[in-house]
Amino acid sequence: MGFKSYITKKALQMKGMSSEQAEQITKQLEENPEIAESLKALDGNKEVKELFEKITKEIEEKKKAGTAEQYAAILVMNKYKAEIIKHREALAPLMSLMQK
Known about the structure:
Blueprint: H1 3-14, H2 19-31, H3 33-43, H4 46-64, H5 69-79, H6 81-86, H7 88-99
Helix pairs in contact: 1-2, 2-3, 3-7, 4-5
């Protein structure tokens, strides 16, 4: 594992991802650098960035209120389902990482 992969894995773990998930995503990014480039484009998409900031904030609020993390994520994602679908093309690289 190279330095860049190590940093990526540690950053994902710091964001709360399990070691196994972080390892899997890091491996996929190494094998498919075009996915990383597509993900960089998401950062420039103001609407998608704001959407994910709202989602993250609401998940954190629900977790602080005592809701389990997975359940909180499901509740919030369902709330924003229409907006997520609206941006599905831009989110396709991210979704492909999550499904593997």
